[in-house]
Specification:
The chain is α+β, with helices and mostly antiparallel strands and about 650 residues long. It folds into 4 domains: about 35-115, no CATH class; about 145-285, Sandwich (Jelly Rolls); about 290-445, Jelly Rolls (Sandwich); about 485-495 and about 515-640, Serine Threonine Protein Phosphatase 5, Tetratricopeptide repeat (Alpha Horseshoe), CATH 1.25.40.10. The strands form 8 sheets. The protein has a 5-stranded antiparallel sheet, with no helix packed on it. The two termini are about 35 Å apart. It is about 35% helix and about 20% strand.
Length: about 650
């Protein structure tokens, strides 16, 4: 009978997208033509140019504007397009070529201005290109699956900025591959933006006060049983278009998993209800290309004095292999002025990824490249973000300016550059990438919780327990209240055969959170390995009390009962041994060894009928069992000798 194994999980964080500022609408690009002597300007061009909201549609689904709508706003459109205030597009031309670029050419701007000078005359009917008419509810068509939370969230009238997490179970019976998701906010008045987080282990459910209620929080980290780093930007904001993953890059959906919709809610001054839904679109083509999100950041360096006009933070990442950059997501708050991202190649040349000379939080987003940007091995990617904390910064929320430090709330600052990268080489190289990210993060922040934890997790996965222990120790020191760090440290100590230290650490984990069943499961396994079978059975029992459907705990408790029974039998207590074997039997009825143990115990007590029944069970499982046949012969001989 083998010793029960440990259960391990790893935390993987998701990038937090736009977190403090409202979004205006973002529509399609200009669509118009000039034919002398008439000027034809599509009304869609005007609505895109100023990001206007027309009645009858949610953000991101603007209905087609008519000439009357445009004519009423013609002077405004000329002004905002001429100054390039609209349409909103942050990246500077020449520093990266992006899909869905909303920049207007000088000729397009002049064309519209000329049309307004002529009095906005009507063109010839039929010459304007027809605007696409997507489904009002689902632009991509009816989803394969529509996910909903158990209950809506009520935003109090006097609420401040709130991040609320909706848990949406995924009701599938087999593994599926997701090519796209669409998020319907339900109440765009308060629904500012959202991120989707994959939760394969139901970790989020433990945060709910009552099942289905959801829970608050912005920075969400969940523990997973397998290595699953983020590889896709799964987000929504007003005006964003649905991203369809290319063949081979769909992400995996597992039976029983949850999607967590992390929503930034903006109060309106009256009570509001938010009840979003997610449409899921599947593909039959499984994932065989594995992108990963890499973050450059230097938030700990953010300590911006009032009046400072050019506060600079930088970060670097050295590519451990040839990488294709598929998308970039810069993020900062109100004080940022310029954001730059570029790669210095091994030959010393510079390759630009993005440059934003006039940062505006209102128009941030994920920028996807028209073609992948190759970053050779040993290239150094650099992030540079300049901040202006002076009164001359019109976006400075503080008047007069005050000291601002790094943080996730609106009053603080952030400085991030996220890259979605795909290794050029075939296969799954995410573990190598994650190791390089964590190692370089630890060079900046030796006490960083996540980097230490991930390094420990990677090493432990490679069966390098002794090397993993120091990383888990630093993670536990960084966050003494992390039950996850204490539990994984206990697992590493167990794998290194330091059983007393492992049990001590796992008991400590349970003082942090007595309901954390993974820690209790692991403690039970360590106790069983230490020969403390009675305590192990009790701990597995507590796991089952919290999780009655936990089949691993049920199986391992039965195995511990058998080991406990063996210990009792060796001590001459067959009554105790028989009781324990019988308690374990429902879970281990197909295991012939347990029947042999029970049959032998019965035989020692001269309970020959019961002993014979157990060995007959062994022969039904394994008709060739020599032990069972010898035992049956012995029982027959014993009956003859005793007359029983």
């Amino acid at each position: 009978m083998s010793v029960p194994s440990l259960r391990r999980r790893a935390p993987w964080a998701n990038p937090q997208f736009a977190d403090v500022a409202p979004w205006a609408n973002r529509g399609q690009t200009a669509n118009f033509q000039q034919t002398a002597p008439e000027i034809h300007v599509s009304p869609r061009f005007a609505s895109v140019a100023v990001g206007l909201r027309f009645s009858g549609g949610e953000p991101g689904h603007l209905p087609r504007a008519n000439r009357t709508d445009v004519k009423k706003r013609a002077a405004q459109i000329v002004k905002v397009t001429g100054s390039r205030f609209m349409p909103p597009w942050l990246p500077e031309p020449g520093y990266g070529q992006f899909k869905e670029e909303r920049r207007l050419t000088d000729a397009q701007i002049k064309l519209f201005a000329d049309w307004v000078k002529q009095g906005t005359p009507a063109g010839t009917p039929g010459k304007s290109a027809a605007a696409p008419q997507p489904d009002a509810a689902w632009p991509m068509g009816q989803p394969d699956l529509v996910l909903r939370s158990a209950r809506p969230y009520t935003v109090p009238a006097d609420a401040g900025e709130t991040f609320w997490n909706f848990i949406m179970p995924v009701p599938i019976s087999s593994t599926r591959w997701v090519r796209a998701i669409e998020i319907r906010p339900g109440n765009p008045r308060v629904f500012h933006h959202a991120n989707v987080i994959l939760d394969r282990s139901h970790a989020a459910r433990r945060r709910e006060s009552t099942p289905g209620s959801g829970f608050p929080g912005m920075d969400v980290i969940f523990e997973e049983e397998s290595f699953e780093p983020d590889g896709h930007f799964l987000s929504w904001k007003p005006g964003s278009s649905t991203v369809v993953e290319p063949d081979g890059m769909a992400w995996r959906a597992d039976p029983g998993m949850d999607l967590i919709l992390n929503v930034h809610v903006k109060p309106t001054g009256k009570e509001e209800t938010v009840n979003p839904v997610i449409g899921v679109y599947f593909t039959d083509k499984p994932q065989n290309r594995f992108p990963m999100l890499i973050q450059l950041e230097r938030d700990r360096a953010l300590d911006i004095p009032p009046g400072e006009t050019d506060f600079l933070v930088t970060d670097e990442y050295r590519a451990p292999m040839d990488l294709n950059v598929l998308a970039v997501y810069p993020h900062a708050h109100y004080l940022a002025k310029m954001i730059e991202g570029y790669a210095t190649l091994p030959d010393g040349s510079k390759k630009w990824l993005i440059r934003i000379p006039d940062w505006d939080l209102n128009w941030q987003g994920v920028f996807r490249y028209k073609s992948p940007v190759l970053i050779p091995k040993d290239s150094v990617v650099t992030m540079r973000i300049h901040y202006d904390n002076s009164a001359s910064n019109v976006r400075n929320p503080n008047n007069p300016p005050k000291r601002v430090t790094g943080g996730t709330d609106a009053a603080s600052e952030m400085g991030h550059l996220w890259l979605q990268v795909l290794p050029v080489a075939e296969g799954d190289h995410r573990a190598e990438l994650q190791e390089s990210v964590s190692a370089q993060q630890l060079q900046k922040y030796p006490d960083d919780f996540t980097a230490n934890f991930r390094m420990g997790d990677l090493l432990l996965t490679r069966n390098q327990a002794a090397e993993a222990i120091p990383y888990f120790e630093r993670a536990a020191e960084s966050d003494p209240r992390s039950v996850l760090a204490a539990t994984e440290l206990g697992a590493a100590l167990f794998a290194a055969k330091k059983l007393p230290e492992s049990a001590e650490m796992l008991r400590h984990a349970l003082t942090i959170d007595a309901t954390y069943t993974d820690a209790r499961f692991n403690l039970a396994s360590v106790l069983a390995s230490s020969g403390k079978f009675e305590e192990a059975v009790q701990e597995f029992g507590q796991v089952l009390a919290a999780q009655p459907d936990n089949l691993k705990a049920r199986q391992h408790r039965a195995e511990a009962q058998v080991l406990w029974g063996d210990h009792a039998a060796k001590a001459g207590d067959d009554n105790k041994a028989i009781a324990l074997y019988r308690e374990a039997m429902p879970e281990l009825a197909s295991n012939p060894d347990v029947h042999v143990r029970l049959g032998m115990a019965y035989a020692r007590q001269e309970r020959l009928d019961e002993s014979q029944a157990e060995f007959e069970a062994v022969l039904r499982i394994d008709p060739k069992s020599s032990i069972a046949r010898q035992a049956m012969d012995a029982i027959v001989a014993r009956r003859k000798a005793t007359g029983k």
